[in-house]
Structure formats: structure tokens, C-alpha cells
Amino acid sequence: MSGNANTPILVGVGEYSERIDSAGYEVLSYVDLAAGAARRACDDAASVSALAPHIDMVVSTRQFENSSPMAKAPFGRSNNFPRSVAQRLGANPARAAVEVAGGQSPQHLVNEFAQSIHDGAVKLVLLVGAEAMSTVRHLQGAKEKRDWSEKVEGTLEDRGYGLAGLVNRYEQSHQLRGAPAAYALCENARRARLELSRADYAKRMGELFAPFSQVAAKHPHSSSTQAYSAAELVSVSERNRMIADPYTRLLVARDQVNQASALVLTSVGLARELGIAESKWVYLHGCADARERALLERPDMSSSPAAIEASRAALAAAGIDIGQVDCFDLYSCFPIPVFNVLDAFGLSANDPRGFTLTGGLPYFGGAGNNYSMHGIAAAAARARATPGTYAFVGANGGVMSKYSVGIYSTRARDWQPQDSTLQARLDAVPTTPIAYEADGPARVETYTIVYDKGVPAYGVVVGRLESNDARFLALTPENDAQTLQQMVAQEPLNQRIYVRSFGSGNRFTFARERLFTLYPEEPKILRSEYQFCRVERREHVLEVTIDRPAVRNCLHAPAHEELSAIFDTFFADPDLWVAIITGAGTEAFCAGNDLKYQSPMDTFVRSKSGFGGLTSRRERNKPVIAAVNGFAMGGGFEICLASDLVVADENALFALSEVKVGLIAGAGGLIRLPRQIPKKQAMEMILTGRRVSAAEGKTLGWVNRITPPGQALEGARQLAAEILDGSPVSVQCSLQAINDSEGSTSVLEALLQQADAVDRLITSEDMIEGFTAFGQKRKPRWKGR
Predict the structure, then answer these.
(1) Between β-strands 705-707 and 578-583, what pairing exists: parallel, antiparallel or unpaired?
(2) In angstroms, rounded to a whole number, what is the distance separating the alpha carbons of residues 388 and 385?
(3) What distance in Å separates the CA atoms of residue 365 and residue 17, rounded to the nearest whole number?
(4) How far, in Å, CA of 167 to CA of 29, rounded?
(5) Distance CA 625, CA 234 (A)
(6) How many Å apart are CA 251 and CA 180, to the nearest integer?
(7) For residues 587 and 652, is the Cβ–Cβ distance under 8 A?
(8) Cα(151)–Cα(78) distance, rounded to whole angstroms?
(9) Are 375 and 354 in contact (CB under 8 A)?
(10) Counting Cβ atoms within 10 Å, is residue 451 exposed (0-12), middle (13-18) or buried (19+)?
């Protein structure tokens, strides 16, 4: 018996489930499933009536329908999930919270609130979670409706989605939008490390997971009652189709479940007061939480040091080694998180202790963020059944991104706080450099092939450039059956590939010729007609008009590509010396992204040269004038800031309005505006999104000239004519010198960087013509060379 009254203990566990094919199927909502588990957890400890008045904190994991900003609840949901559950128990806790998304959530919550109980911040905590995805899909398939919406009064601590570091634009643009594809990259990285063939590695995955299915078949709350052999798990068939190489359907977490679980935590002191039998007490001997690097930054994509070090830290806190653990429940959404722990501790897949107490996510069921709460319930039950033994629970979130560990036993032990230095040690490890725009020969580090209904849809590789060993993501080209079939038929690992970068991401093939056949270099000539723009060549001036007036000249990915090609031609043509960009009509120059055309992630898809083909363009040495009529909002204003000169009519309005729609001015506005006007004024515009007139823009400094309404283009033509009075080579060399000096820290350093521009100038025909014309007192005849 522990002598410390503030020692945290787990005193109640409960599970509740139903299958749509069972005789007693009740079509329960998420809340009702969770309430069923919560009642059982309270009754397991003592009784609902005995515990409900003392519950001062209820925390729930998130459901699938509430795990991301884009998730939907087709039948409505509670505005306060934990209080809805508490209300059904007759409890009125002082606090209620919803945890962040992630499979580590249940164990992390145990770790967190065990510490809070020890510190006296809370006394009796109910942790609860539920998933009803199977019922949701069943009802939708039957075209039946339910109303699961609830409105419950009371405070709620919503901890957010917890997606920071787990979702990024680079991975999304390369189709890593689901867990199977991302985990498959880690799995095949491990196969590469072990130098195994596809067949040999599949055999090992089957041998690992076959015992899991056998445990699940006997579990009363399992979503599956069928046990599988190792061969059955990895043999491709109509019922076991490929999902993402190397995963068949039976190796992937099963999300169609109706499962709920709950835990009751309190202190030794309160447990005694409430008369909770000591046979129910389970101690948390050691625990740890750790976070991993972003997927592509990891030195070794086949491993997660965070999970390994968290496991070691928890064992050290418990005062035991891995050999003294009697049973395990390792998070098993895919084989690789289990292999990760086994590899680190030298454990065999056929270890007689086994590595699951429930049956794992593909067989017991992947109850969303709540799976590990079932694992903890099973660990507590095993610890009670065999007093004094140790149960190890490892909970994984993200793509082996977050890991939480708990060591459970009925053996009394005072509270051991977590190792406070663990995360700092992990963060100190250097990251791997990433080439977001990858071009040239490379080798395949790892890969996956994503399938659609059993048919290969596209391939993803993680590669290393031969030039600098930087890591990158790349996709098979769209509609390129040849490269995709080559990935299927041959071993991709360590193969030489060729990669090219585009605005939509990197694309690769196994032969350089194939890549340039699929993506031929577009000739740098002006087409006679464009779909979203108009162009007019007026001697040495190119006029570009964004021609989408019906949507205020907003831009989408196809328009960006057109503008990119147009400006490629402008900068490559030696006879074009100045460009003017404007918008069709009188209402808008460009009002930014076409948000109606694009999904939230697609708002970041544009050409390599940036918004409007200008904002990310390198090596610009010809002047671009923005002729602004009407609105220049968001990306439209960023085009203006990226232009060398701005002529606006009196009605023009400018704004970096991205904050109004939940975005940022990521096409250069955040960088350029504070450099072009006083910082405090720029900060106000960026943080409020306020609209600024042409007159104020001129005062602040980004507008050069103001014209009467509707005359911006004429004003820009006049300014272009004045530029053309000077030497084109001098203008270009001046721009080159200015651009080259932007990163300089001193005037002297900038002066020394002018050498390239000066060298070009002194060897030009224009300089000779300038001196000659001056001596002959005539107007120069510039050649631009």
C-alpha cells in the first residue's frame, strides 16, 4: 500500500461497443457510446452514484468528425462533448476539455492528469472517447438521418486540432494526404535499411500482425472476429486489395468502428475516502511524452527516435528494463510503429509476450484518436489479473510524430515525474536538408505506390539529389502509366531517377529523356492567344492584361502558369525592354486568389515564378510596371510590390487582405511591404487587412504616380516611354546591381557586388553609343546590347 495520499492511480476502466450486424444494434451516437463506457468505468471503480459528485474534470479525445478544420459531422454533434457525457452521468465537473487529435492522446492525457492529481490541481478525472464511424457510414449508405446535435451549457477548454508540424503544404502538394501513403514511406525506408525484397518484407509484416488478429478475434469489443494467417494478411486479392505499397487492406487501421472507452483517475487519498477497493488500483510506474521531427527532416525515415527515447525514459522511471515487462500494447495502425520499438530493443516479432492486448488497429479497430484508451483499459485489466506484473502501453500519433508511453502495475509506487530533458535532447539532433524545388539526377531513398480500388494511381518517392544529397518529394507525372508500371514491376529503392520542379511540385521519371518528353520546354515566344490573359507587343514594350474581369481578375493555377510563360518570354526576348501588367475592366487590377475555384490547400499552388508569374521570379533585370485600376487585393497587391514601378488611378485600392480569409500574404507581401514602407505602417496593413487608397500609397511610397480614373495604363505607357529614353543596357545593369545588393549588410559590400553589372555595361554597344551620341549632340539609337 502506498503511503502517499497524492499518488495518482487508475481506478476505473470501461469499454462500450456495438456492431451493425449484431442483434442488439442500437445505432448509438458518439456521445451515447462514450456515456456507456463512462458508466462502466465508474461502476468498475465503485458506482456512478458514488463517483459522479466528485468528478471535477472530464476530458475527451477528439472524434473523426472533429479532428480537422475540414471534418464534417453529417448528423450534427455536441457543442461540448465532455459535458454531454458528464450530463448523462449526473456529473457537473468544474472543468471540461477536448484534447488535440492524435493517437497518442489517451496515454498523454493519463500522463498529464496523473501529474495534475499529484500536484493537487484536480482530484477525480474522467477520460473518455468514442468513435461511431461505422454507424455514420451505415446510415449514410441507407440514406437514413439522425439528429445527434446537442447544446450543453458550461465552459469547454478546446485544445485545438494539434496539427502543427503534422500537415504541411509541401507534403500535401505531393499527395501525402492520408496516413497509408505517409506510413508506407517509413515502411519502405525500413525495408531499404534491412535490404529485403518486397516478398520477404511482406512475409515479416504478416508474421508480425497475424498474432494481433488472433487476439482481436477473442476480444469482446473487437470490430473483427476473424483471425488471419500471415499469408492471408499480405496476399493480394479482391477482398485484400493494395492500399499503398507495401500495405494491403488487412495491414491498415480499420476506422469503421463503433467503440468507446473511459478511464477514471484519482489519488490514493481520495480513493480511500470513497471506499474504492485496493484491488482496483493501478499505478503509473513510469511515463513519457515525446515529439518527433517533421517527416522529411528525420535523419532516418525508417525510425522514430522520439518513440524509442520515450519508451526508454518511461522504463527508467519505472525502474525496470524491457525484459521485465510482462505484456505490451503497442500502437499498431501499421506495422512500422511496432517494428520501430522492436528494432530499438532487439525484440522478436514472435516474442511469447505478444505486442497487443486488444488485437491492434487493423483488427480490434482503429477507434480514431481513442484507440489507446482501449489499450490502457486492457493493460489495467491484465495488471489486476496478475498483480505485481508490468504492462507497457505505447501510443502513437501523426506519422510516428508524437509518442506517449505508460508503464502500469498494481505494485504500489510513488509518483515518478517525466524526464524534463527528454524533448530537448531530441530537438538537438540536426535535421536533414530539404530541396523543395528539386532538379536533376537523384536516387530513390524510399517510395510508395498509392492504389485506387486496387489499381495503381500514382507513385511518390523520397529522393536524394546527386548534387548535394538534399532530400525531396516527387510524384510520378500525371497520366504517366509507363513510370508507374515501372515502379510496380521493378525495385524502386536506390534506383537512379531524374526530377524536375514545377509550381505544383516535383515530378520524376527513371529516364531523363522521358521527363523532358512529358514536359517539353515551352518555347519562349508569345502565343497569338491566351485563355486568361491578353498580350500586346508595342515595339520594345510588352503589355500584359489579366483577363478575368468576371472574377475581379482573381488568379488560379492555370492563370499563374500562363503569366509565368508570358514573363519567361519577356525576360528572354532581347528586344523587349519594359513590361506593363494591368487588369481587364475598370473594377480590379487583381483581387488575389480565386478562392471559389480553389480548395484551401490549392490556394498555395502557383507557378514556380510565383503569384502572377512575378513574385518568386529570380534574376529579373528588366523593369515591370504595374498599371493599377481598381482593386489590388491580396496577391494582386503582391504583384504590385514585386513590380519595379506602380502607376495607379485615383480609384485604386490596395490591401493585403489575407487575414480576412484565414490566410497570410505568403507570395512576398509579408517580406516586401515592410521593406518598401515604414515597418509600423506595413504592420498595420498586414495585421488588419485594411484598404489603402492610391494617394496614401504614394505617400507611403509604393505608388510612383497617380492618374485620373481609368488612365492607369496610359500613365504606365508614359512612364515606360521615359524609361526607354535611357539605355536599355544601363537600365538592366542598374536593376541587376540593385537586386544583387539586397542582401548586403553595408554600402561598401554592395558597391563591391556591382562588378558583374559594370562588366556587362562596359562591354555593351549601348555604352559606346551613349558616348558617341553625346559627342555628336544627337539622340542615342539604343540597341539593347
Answers:
(1) unpaired
(2) 9
(3) 11
(4) 29
(5) 61
(6) 10
(7) no
(8) 6
(9) no
(10) buried
Asked whether the beta carbons of 267 and 7 are under 8 A apart, the reply is yes
Q: For helices 179-194 and 335-345, what crossing angle results, to 10°?
A: 40
CA–CA gap between residue 730 and residue 740 (Å, rounded): 15
679 CB-contact burial (10 Å; exposed 0-12 / middle 13-18 / buried 19+): exposed
Q: Are 661 and 595 in contact, with CB atoms under 8 Å apart?
A: yes
Average pLDDT of the residues in 139-154: 95
Strand, helix or coil at 267?
strand
- Cβ density class 30-50: b for 16+ within 10 Å, e for less: bbbbbbbbbbbbbbbbbebee
**C-alpha distances in angstroms, 556 versus 593, 604, 640?**
6, 10, 17
Average pLDDT over residues 377-392: 98
d(Cα 212, Cα 328) in Å, to the nearest integer? 12
Residue 535, beta-bridge partner list: 544
The pLDDT, as a whole number, for residue 580 is 97
Active site residues: 638, 658
Residue 350 DSSP SS3: coil
- Compute the distance between CA of residue 249 and CA of residue 450 in angstroms, rounded to an integer: 12
Identify whether the C-beta of residue 688 lies closer than 8 Å to the C-beta of residue 696: no
| 136 and 74 Cβ atoms separated by less than 8 Å | yes
Residue owning grid cell 492522446: 105
CB-CB contact of 532 with 578 (8 Å): no
pLDDT tens digits for range 438-455:
999 999 999 999 999 999
What is the Cα–Cα distance from 513 to 522, expressed in whole angstroms?
Answer: 16
Sorted by sequence, the CB contacts under 8 Å of residue 347 that are 6+ apart come out as 322, 341
CA distance 97 to 105: 12
Phi, psi for residue 41 in degrees, rounded to 5: -65, -45
Q: What is the pLDDT of residues 315-325, one digit of tens each?
A: 999 999 999 99
The tally of CA atoms less than 13 A away on the side-chain side of residue 361 is 28
**Dist CA 712 CA 721 (whole Å):** 14
Q: Are 729 and 784 in contact (CB under 8 A)?
A: yes
Residues 6+ apart with CB under 8 A from 573: 524, 542
Q: Which residue has the higher pLDDT, 764 or 161?
A: 161
Q: Output b/e per residue, 751-779; b: 16+ Cβ within 10 A.
A: eebbeebeeebeebebbebbeeeeeeeee
First to last CA, the chain: 92
Instruction: Report which DSSP code applies to 150.
Output: B
For the cut 70, the answer to whether the pLDDT of residue 762 exceeds it is no
| pLDDT tens for each residue of 335-365 | 999 999 999 999 999 999 999 999 999 999 9
Task: Render pLDDT for 158-210 as a digit per residue (tens, 0 to 9).
Answer: 999 888 777 788 998 899 988 999 999 999 999 999 999 999 999 999 999 99
Lowest model confidence (mean pLDDT) among 234-248, 502-516, 736-750: 736-750
CA dist 340 and 342 (Å) reads 6
Whole-angstrom distance, CA of residue 283 vs CA of residue 411: 7
DSSP state of 442: E
d(CA 663, CA 640): 19
How distant, in Å, are the alpha carbons of 179, 519, 542, 721, 724 from that of 539? Answer: 55, 31, 8, 11, 11
pLDDT band at 664 (very low <50, low <70, confident <90, very high): confident
Residue 137, all three cell numbers: 457510414
Beta bridge mates, 536:
543
Q: What's phi and psi for 661, nearest 5 deg?
A: -120, 20
**pLDDT at 745 exceeding the cut of 90:** no
Residue 154 grid cell: 458550461
pLDDT at residue 1 in the model: 54
- Tell me whether strands 705-707 and 124-132 are parallel, antiparallel or unpaired: unpaired
Query: How far, in Å, CA of 35 to CA of 149, rounded?
Result: 15
Report whether pLDDT(34) > 50: yes
